[in-house]
Amino acid sequence: RFHVGDEIVIEQDRDGRLIIVAAPDEEILTYLLGGEESPLGRQLRELRQQIVATGVPLLDSEALEREVEDRRGERG
Q1: Environment class of residue 52 by beta-carbon count within 10 Å: exposed (0-12), middle (13-18) or buried (19+)?
Q2: Among the residues of 30-60, which ranges form H helices?
Q3: For the whole model, what pTM was predicted?
Q4: I need a surface site. Which of 23, 55, 59, 75 has the fewest CB within 10 A?
Q5: Closest CA to 30 of 52, 11, 49
Q6: Residue among 25, 3, 21 nearest 11 (CA)
Q7: What is the C-alpha separation between 18 and 4, in angstroms, rounded?
Q8: What does the domain layout of the chain look like in residue ranges?
Q9: Residue 64, SS3 per DSSP
């Protein structure tokens, strides 16, 4: 079962069917800085996990853009 924010792995079976599974922890993509995750990256990932755990849906890119504009007072 998938949840909003889950990272997935997509593979193609020999007969052409697509197989979609939740990514195991060791395969989840991380952005590394100098071979280690940056403190900011770690903090942002932890915050994201907390939000996902509450069941609150994550914002898509358009909703995030609107939220930032609203907070900056750029939309009226």
Answers
A1: middle
A2: 39-54
A3: 0.45
A4: 55
A5: 49
A6: 21
A7: 20
A8: 8-72
A9: helix
